[in-house]
Amino acid sequence: MQSADSATKDGLDAGPEAGPDATRKASPISDFWRALALLSRVPVAGTHDFRAELIARSVWSWPLVGLLLAGFAMLPAMLVYQLTENILIFAIIALAGMVLLTGSMHEDGMADCADGFGGGFERARKLEIMRDSHIGTYGVVALILCFGLRLVLLSAAGDGGQAAVLFLVMAITSRAAMPVVMHILPPARDNGLGKGAGTPNLMMVGLAVLIAAILSFVLAGLITTIAVLAGAMVAIGVMTAVAKWQIGGQTGDVLGATQLVSELFVGIACIAVI
């Protein structure tokens, strides 16, 4: 398994956009394309500069990337649902589509965190395990439980329409949770994706949360949005506390695990109010 802390987008190095004026030349559109290239396997032409300040600037658009990815992942799932009317088949195909689009980068982070936090006794050893390309028992169990719970949550939505809304809301809100953790926790390493992604300022983090809240409101209504934000806050609190306790900060793996944990808490919150 490729660790999220050893895997990089072009090594997070400066490309053709690099230079003292690169940040000033950045635009909301380039922010979105950079975020899409970073958070997925979707090929984005002309996006080569993944310096920390540009990634940190792009975090406002991460919920929009979640909306786009979930929308595409859901298309074949909805088609099959129309043919079968089986909500579990919908859930499996939708999750499979998301895995293909993201390259399992968040699942990789969850597995690495589970192995490192569960298998190491000292901070340095935990970080070493997290960077190891092999997956251990803790990682396997964590992935099984996460996929199982996601399938149950989507199946519990009741029908294809509600499951589709839940799938979208989970994808959107969980990608707004990662910038919050990036802002709260310092990088646990002096290299890797957690360090290379930079520290987003409060305005960009707040904008990401606001966009996620607006999209959730449009898709699911006020009560569900309140529940979703509460669930995301709990997930952020859990991941922040655990990561600080275990390794003293965040890494790319921690951010990936944050996305999955947030999906689960948001999903539980949604099911509780629908």
Secondary-structure blueprint of this entry?
Blueprint: H1 22-25, H2 28-39, H3 52-58, H4 62-84, H5 87-102, H6 105-119, H7 123-131, H8 137-155, H9 160-184, H10 193-196, H11 202-220, H12 222-247, H13 252-273
What would the keywords be for this entry?
single chain, 274 residues, mainly alpha, 13 helices, 0% strand, globular
Summarize the structure.
This protein has helices at 22-25, 28-39, 52-58, 62-84, 87-102, 105-119, 123-131, 137-155, 160-184, 193-196, 202-220, 222-247, 252-273. It is an all-alpha fold. Mean pLDDT is 89; it is low at 7-23.
Note down, in words, how this protein is organized:
This protein is mainly alpha-helical. It has helices spanning 22-25, 28-39, 52-58, 62-84, 87-102, 105-119, 123-131, 137-155, 160-184, 193-196, 202-220, 222-247, 252-273.
Instruction: Give the overall form.
Output: globular
Radius of gyration in whole Å, from Cα? 18 Å
| Sequence of secondary-structure elements | HHHHHHHHHHHHH
Q: What is the helix content?
A: over 70%
The number of helical elements comes to 13
| Low-pLDDT segments, ≥5 res | 7-23
Strand percentage: under 5%
Mean pLDDT: 89
* Main sheet overview: none
Number of strands: 0
Query: What would you call the structural class?
Result: mainly alpha
Span between termini: 37 Å
